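Ticket opened by: R.M.
Priority: normal
Category: complex prediction / small molecule

The reporter submitted a protein together with shikimate-3-phosphate and asked that the result be attached to this ticket for the collaborator who will pick it up next week. Submitted input follows.
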Amino acid sequence: MAFTHTYAPLTARAAGPLSGRLRLPGDKSISHRAVMLGALAVGETVIEGLLEGDDVLATMEAMRALGARISRSENGVRRVNGFGVGGALEPDRVIDFGNSGTGVRLAMAIAGSHAFATTFTGDASLVKRPMGRVTDPLRRMGAQVLARAGDKLPLTILGPDRMTPIEFRLPVPSAQVKSAVLFAALNVPGTTTVIEPWPTRDHTEKMFAGFGANIDVTLNDAGERVIRLEGRPKLKAQTIVVPGDPSSAAFPIVAGLVVPGSVVTVEGVLLNPTRTGLIATLREMGARLTIENERTVGGETVGDVRVEHSELRGVTVPADRAPTMIDEYPVLAVAAAFADGETIMEGIGELRVKESDRVATTLAGLRANGVDASEEKERLIVRGRRTVTGGGTVVTEFDHRIAMSFVVMGLASEKPVTVDDATAISTSFPAFRDLMTGLGASIAPAPAGATAAA
Ligand code: S3P
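Result attached by the on-call engineer:
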């Protein structure tokens, strides 16, 4: 399969302090789940603040292909009329998830719990990512999977007449894998159990309960989370307000900390404790970071995060924190480059199977801009010297978080930083450049958009 697109390089340069307030797009994880649960519920689910990035748009298309009706009103509110648990229709097209790992893995579980065949594919990045972590438990539940080696996309999944409930122990700390088993288990008679040795984001559990599923979470003697879900619930349509995405907030937060003289407030950030590892780490690094106006929105704690430029120092980030900040390591590495001393990020092997191998892409981006850093299989070490030379071009490998992280670097480095391609930013944070320039950032298209095959 040939993948072509036009590269859109961006250059970021230092141009004085950043100041102001900004409101973020909706959380990506909750947005995917809101659309999927709306599709699995009976009645009309109303979603406010849904992230309209490419990844979530792909999830909407997939749910439409399975029979949901989804509309949008002028104020951006989405209405989803669901097909109900077990009521999806056989799709008449291949479902293309573009860049979205979360979307495809959860949708494979939903479709794969029905007795029809669905074929999934994705872009040049997604077809390289491991799907076996999801297809293995789905096979155990009774689905058949026809795939190329390693269960990579494109693949076809055919559900059985009736899936079997399983007890499944997560082999990797992945909320996507946990959630895929739980989404499939909705359409399985009986109780499915998932044991989670490392707590990961818990949006699926909370939202299932909110839609009326019988789901129960306890701790076993070893302190592991044990999630039990009763299959075949009748999910009831809900109104959902999606809070601001902490993984997108990470970029203006780190920018405010590293650009001298800055004061930035990011409003309405989701502060679910399974997502706040970056905030904890930045505080340990000496960040002047305060949380204001803490409140509850749609059952989740949100707050406004205010940061001021700070003298950061290097820290060791323990492995057990990784699931709570898994998407934030690239931008943490940028903060670490401006810090004083060594930052060691432990237990980050999962970063190697994200939209790119993020240990490798982050390291290459740091080195291209004169930062002293090194990698081990499960660790990234950045030796910060308070200033960053910059002047490099970063190869983003169509990874949105790599692109945004190095744009942030360029806002505070001595020489401008160019990212080779910013198109992937629209997967999660289409308004990134506008919001950042609104704070005073200098981010502009760089010349030479070449058409390239990936
Ligand atoms: C997500 C879980 C994480 C994260 C991804 C979104 C989710 O992936 O990296 O961006 O919504 O469940 P893993 O669960 O594979 O770590």
